[in-house]
Specification:
By secondary structure, this protein is an alpha+beta fold. 28% of the residues lie in helices and 23% in strands. It binds flavin-adenine dinucleotide.
């Protein structure tokens, strides 16, 4: 890329334009997944919508690859590239709450931590993920699964409107009233359709919750999973709870002699009246003896950030696989019982998130997110510090995934997938895929936005 072209870009951009010659480039090129080592030609750390338009136009006119980076958590590392342009939203993290309308507007780089602390001050929240460091942008555009999904739907079900810069550099508002086809596609289609500069969400009254993790012996896996599938099918929708395989970290609430042991855990969040929390948790305490737990009343943002330390940015290698599940059959439970306990590192996890309840009542063609008839979204998340352990950890994820695949749906949640899952794109969207392709042809016929789980025009 010539100096003149870069100078022209700099002249148009209020934020930082960082090339390999500039201080800060080494940091600017990195993403959350330490396995990803790419060298973009330029990172545009945007300060406003005008900067986004300039960066989009620049990438398109220069025929360069373009990455969009919200919170940077993409497991395949779509938020950076070799030799192209990165739109980096890390300087645009503002969140404005309207407590009267119960809505909030988040800029494209806000994390769920930014969002939750802003809305919590008003006793409000909406569905986000289970850790606080993930970006609102990528998580919402792909779906948005977390503690509040059963009660309030996916994050994208709470999206009221989005400000978007399209591939031709235009600014559009997408909502039920404006550019409805684009709004439909954004809700599940990921970063395929434009650069979202801000998101407007519906909020709900959630302030303090009753929640936390409970650890059970591995011998109880079958019991716990069979209990969980029955329980969660009819549990009150204020209950968000998921089973997990987890190696015990060295935390004070876990007996010291059990640190490093593997457990089957249930992590739960009761978002109903806090004083009913203990009673709401009774079924978990009845199913099997709890070895260790850290549950109780707490502000919602505290639970949302409780596990952040297990997943430090830029220090772990990530390789994940995912599938949607309608029924957690005995055969599937047998596979979990075999592969879950082999979890290789304290950072890795297997979670079975419930997506029944409010998310399941939305029609499959109401948004691009098609798997409304699935009850669970399973993720096998391999996360480990040493690149030398890549082979063993990736093998654990693949073997586990292969074992549960026959008992799962063909498609999976796009936000939990790796770079080698592109062949499953059509399956992820089922009956919505052809409409998505049509909308892609309208808004991005040349596939400028292709560094994502790509819907090719
Ligand atoms: C530790 C960890 C925990 C997670 N927990 C959850 C969870 O609880 N629930 C859940 O649903 N998911 C979860 N995820 C998955 C998460 O939803 C995806 O990784 C998601 O892509 C992250 O969004 P981001 O903005 O942080 O990532 P980025 O890497 O910045 O973005 C990912 C992709 O989203 C698109 N994108 C990002 N910003 C924009 C924008 N402003 N406009 C248009 N497109 C954009 C781009 O295609 C980009 O490549 C988790 C991931 C990690 C690593």
């Amino acid at each position: 890329m010539g100096t003149i072209a870069l100078d022209e870009l700099r002249a148009q951009v209020r934020g930082d334009v960082i090339s390999s010659e500039d201080e800060g480039y080494e940091e600017a090129r990195k993403v959350y997944n330490a396995m990803i080592d790419r060298r973009p030609a330029v990172v545009v750390r945007v300060a406003n919508v005008g900067d986004v338009m300039a960066a989009v136009n620049f990438a398109r006119e220069s025929s360069l690859n373009l990455s969009i980076r919200g919170g940077g958590h993409s497991v395949p590392g779509f938020g950076t590239n070799d030799g192209g342009v990165v739109i980096d939203f890390s300087s645009m993290r503002g969140v404005r709450v309207d407590p009267v309308a119960s809505t909030a507007r988040a800029e494209g780089g806000a994390t769920w931590g930014d969002f939750n602390t802003a809305t919590h001050a008003f006793g409000l929240a909406t569905t986000g993920g289970v850790v606080s460091t993930t970006g609102v942008a990528g998580l919402t555009l792909g779906g948005g699964i977390g503690y509040l999904t059963r009660g309030f739907g996916l994050s994208l079900d709470n999206l009221i409107s989005a400000d978007v810069v399209t591939a031709d550099g235009r600014f559009l508002i997408a909502s039920e009233r404006d550019n409805e086809d684009l709004f439909w596609a954004l809700r599940g289609g990921g970063g395929n359709f434009g650069v979202v500069t801000s998101f407007e969400f519906r909020l709900h009254p959630v302030k303090d919750i009753y929640g936390g993790p409970m650890f059970f012996e591995l011998g109880e896996v079958g019991n716990i999973l069979r209990f969980y599938r029955e329980y969660i099918a009819g549990a009150p929708e204020q209950m968000g709870a998921f089973p997990a395989f987890q190696i015990a970290p060295p935390l004070p609430f876990i007996p010291e002699d059990r640190h490093g042991d593997t457990f089957i855990a249930i992590v739960a969040c009761w978002a109903g009246p806090v004083e009913e929390g203990e009673k709401a948790f009774q079924p978990f305490h009845d199913v099997a003896p709890v070895v260790a737990e850290h549950v109780g009343p707490m502000p919602y943002p505290v639970l949302n950030s409780a596990f952040d330390a297990l997943y430090p940015a830029g220090q772990l290698q990530h390789y994940w696989k995912a599938s949607f599940v309608k029924e957690l059959t005995d055969e599937a439970i047998a596979m979990h019982t075999e592969h879950g306990p082999q979890i290789p590192t304290v950072n890795s996890a297997m979670h079975i998130y419930p997506i029944n309840g409010a998310a399941g009542r939305v029609a499959p063609d109401a948004t691009a997110f098609a798997y409304r008839d699935a009850n669970f979204a399973t993720v096998i998340a391999g996360m480990w510090p040493e690149p030398g352990q890549n082979e063993a950890n990736i093998a654990w994820v693949r073997n586990y995934y292969d074992a549960i695949a026959p008992h799962s749906e063909e498609g999976g949640y796009i936000n939990f997938m790796s770079g080698d899952d592109q062949a499953r794109i059509r399956a992820n969207y089922k009956g919505n895929y052809d409409r998505l392709v049509g909308i892609k042809r309208t808004y991005d016929p040349d596939n400028l936005f292709h560094l994502n789980q790509n819907i090719a025009p």
